[in-house]
């Protein structure tokens, strides 16, 4: 029987890298992972090179949190970065299956960035939040997000933002005081002359949410 008391939360370090990669691989790709990955049928083998890049960046920047169970196994993660270091999705040399996902997220980010006056160096970008399926339902995602918000405030960031792509992540962010600042309707988003996310019915929109951490 798992319990929250058995979980330890730490900044992601290099010794967590392989376990972190494995955790992301089991959390995000289809068939039961993140909303857009599921619709686009992005499989673990398609995801792996992207996962490695994201996780290596995370342990280098030392701004991401992991939830650890027995034997230092990563069972949850909140990968974060300064908005100023967020790479362009189009810069990744990855499977073309990702292209509609990247295009939608770039549109969402651009809609937000043209409206904010906050310096991107002061924006804490909560990039990926996930928990192993076997550890869902224990509040690990909420604790990771809360810990990341507190850490960001301590580090001097003034704003936290996240792209909330699924109904669960959107509900979690709302419960922690985030407000929607930009959105793109899944069923109307067009990429290469087609609507790749037209079958997404819940949630209706991909959203970018923001929480003010402290006044600049």
Describe the structure.
This protein is an alpha+beta fold and 216 residues long. The protein has one domain (4-212): Aminopeptidase, CATH 3.40.630.30. It has six helices and seven strands; from the N terminus they run βαααββαβαβαββ. The chain is globular, with a radius of gyration of 16 Å. The N and C termini lie far apart (44 Å).
Summary tags:
216 residues; alpha+beta; Aminopeptidase; seven-stranded mixed sheet; 6 helices; 7 strands; 34% helix
How would you summarize the topology of this molecule?
Layout: E1 8-11, H1 17-27, H2 35-39, H3 44-61, E2 65-68, E3 74-82, H4 99-113, E4 123-131, H5 140-154, E5 159-164, H6 167-175, E6 179-185, E7 205-212
Parallel strand pairs: 4-5
Antiparallel strand pairs: 1-2, 2-3, 3-4, 5-7, 6-7
Give a short summary of the structure.
It is built from 6 helices and 7 strands. It is α+β, with helices and mostly antiparallel strands. It is globular.
